[in-house]
Amino acid sequence: MNQSKLIVSLSLLFSPAVVFGQEEGKPVQLPPVVVQAEPEAPERTYSEDRARKELNRTPGGVALIGSQPIRQSRGTALHDVIDFVPGVMVRPRFGNVSDESQISIRGSGLRNNFHLRGLTLLIDGFPLNNADGFGDFESLELLAAKRIELYKGANALRFGVNTLGGAINLVTRVGEDTGLFEMRSSGGSFGFMKHQVATGQAYGPFDLYVGLTHTEQDGYREHSQLLRRRAYTSFGYRLSGGTRLRLDLNYVRSDQDLPGALTRAEFKRNPKQRNPDAIQADEARNLDYYRAAASMWMPLSDTQVLEWYTYTSFQYLDHPLSFAVIQDDTYNWGTELRYTFAAPLLGRANRLTVGFQYAGTRQIEQFFRNIRGNHGAQIRDQTNKATNFAGYVNEEFNLTDTLALIAGGQLLYAGRSVSDHFLQDGDSSGSASFFNFSPKVGFVWTVAPPMQVYGNVSRAYEVPLLLELTAPGQLGKSIRQLRAQRAWQFEIGTRGAWENRLRWDIALYDIELWNELQNVNIQPFPNAPFTIPRFRNIERSRHTGVEVGTDILLAQDLSSRLGGPGRADTLWLRTAYTWSRFVFVDDKQFGDNDLPGAPEHFIRGEVRYEHPLGLWFAPNVEIVPTGYFVTSENTVRTNPYTLVNVHLGYTVRPWNLEFFFEARNLADKQYISAVIVDSATGRFIQPGDGRAFYAGIHYRWR
Question: Cα separation of 151 and 312, whole Å?
Fold first, then answer.
């Protein structure tokens, strides 16, 4: 809850000038007014209202998704809850239930034909990406989250993040956020089922949260079965001096069959089929993931806080693909020390944040020939290492009561190395290092609460991933072939609300890039039935966009107007529109062509009716009005599409019982959900699901 207080001296009440009147002509002497700032507290304990206010201190595009959208969705993957954030594209690769997605923010990771790059995923401020920036989605459990914070582009300096796409931070539940017993169960088309049980309580200074989930699906497409189990636990303790300690332990077991990509002809003939050329490979991604994270939040005074974070994780991966079976043992570790000083400077509000980060990854990577999904002869054996040292500073100073200036920067050293233990095809050992300083300046002007205008100029610096430096298709096998991607972001925007009738978030940006990383999938030999990745730097490119999100109150008190009982029901129109233009700039090979992989226009619209008795109904549409290119030559493009969906639900408040229902793709539209860019075999299509229905129930007991 917002606990800001206005403390007014009680002497006013006892002043003779007030009680008995004052002498005529003499000015009224008002007592001093003291404004007490909201007390510092760990961010995981913030209410949604306070978290949103903190987020809006950022001089750039941000978004917060609260607990209600998560509860009222299937809660299986990021696209279930963040599709209505303009500027963000999350397209499932292997069905609507699959976590694996093509994800891009402001054109980040357009080279991303598999897994995640170009943005940072975090849980409670702890990075889930490897130290080199590579990541995946299997370890995220949305039902354990109470909100999601999203920082677009170069606006994630708050976490020391410096990737082009920014950051997505899941803030997970603690004991105070959960009932003594919670149960959630959902199911639907294509054999989908997801179940969760959770418990949470606070006992004096100690709190506990435990959540267990089970997810499975048969899948819309052949060979897209999924079985996933997750365990999330959090233990917190509050010391007498105000210091907070917390330990999080997580485990994930994931087994997923991969249907692969299709050609256009195969897609038209049967979008449900798997890649016919990969049937013998039995492609899949199976893993075990373990994670432990500890944090300490220590108030040094009323205006100073010291935070310490440390984490470690281990992932075992068995990953049959057409060109090889990949077996990885990946160890991650890291720590961060952050100091915050929030005290007036020159009589003005001021907040200084200074942080130091260290992160490391050690990956034992082995490739084997794929014999019907099993391990054949070994063809690669190497140890990959990544190390990051980063320091960052962020200063927020209120120049006036309504204008805040923000300045900061990050100093980064990144080391990458490979030790080749398989020397039959030459020695690929090597190392590379990267050093950079990325500054940022911006402003937030509060025109009239809660209306803001903001802007920033920020630099982003993205080091190539280990898998990009050592990709099977790289020529010469030199780890120094690729340069770091550099970018300057220029952004201006506005966000706010007008009474209870309109909410908006509008941003315009231009990102100038040097050495943008591009993935070109090549055939390793003539007429090969599969491709292998090869990466290169684009000398110059540009990302430009407009992001518009609005919520408009169309009507209220509808039931009373229609002769029903007077109730404060509402009808809202919700829209999210993204215009994007991502292009080469005077490229020697592709000129000023469009960069492949993302639509120019992406539109989401929803009409939502809410009744205070607990009923809500929300039909919505997703529109890609024009196809977009999937090759850098701009010779092949996708087809436009429109999807019609319906969500509805009912909450029985006295029983803490919620029901929800979803109907997706009601017209059973055949459409392309995600793409493989620049595929030498023409396999660029990953089909979206056909018509589907889902329903669920959530119960909470204290």
Answer: 24
Q: Quick count: other Cβ atoms within 10 Å of Cβ 111?
A: 25
**C-alpha to C-alpha distance for 303 and 326, rounded to whole angstroms:** 50
**Do β-strands 120-123 and 403-420 pair in parallel, antiparallel, or remain unpaired?**
unpaired
**Which residue carries 């069959």 as its tokens?**
257
- Per-residue burial over 426-438, b if 16 or more Cβ lie within 10 Å, else e, is eebebebebebeb
Q: By the 8 A CB rule, do 444 and 434 touch?
A: no
H helix count then E strand count, the chain: 8, 33
Residue in the block written with tokens 């209220």: 556
Q: How many CB atoms lie within 10 A of CB 573?
A: 14
Per-residue pLDDT tens over the stretch 304-325? 999 999 999 999 999 999 889 9
Across the strands, what pairs with 44?
A: none
Distance of CA 11 to the CA centre of its chain: 51
d(CA 165, CA 507): 15
The pLDDT, as a whole number, for residue 21 is: 37
**Cβ(162)–Cβ(154) under 8 Å?**
yes
State pTM to two decimals: 0.90
| Nearest CA among 297, 386, 389, 298 for reference residue 335 | 389
Residue among 357, 360, 331 at smallest CA distance from 131: 360
Residue found under tokens 């540009």? 542
Reference 551, options 491, 506, 599; nearest CA is 506
Would strands 120-123 and 166-172 be described as parallel, antiparallel, or unpaired? parallel
Q: What is the predicted pLDDT for the residue at 34?
A: 37
* Structural domains in the chain, sorted by start: 43-701 (2.40.170.20)
Residue 218: exposed, middle, or buried by beta-carbon count in 10 A (0-12, 13-18, 19+)? middle
Close Cβ partners of 417 (under 8 Å, ≥ 6 residues apart): 384, 385, 430, 431, 432, 479
3-state helix, strand, coil in the chain (%, to 5): 10, 55, 35
d(CA 192, CA 186): 8
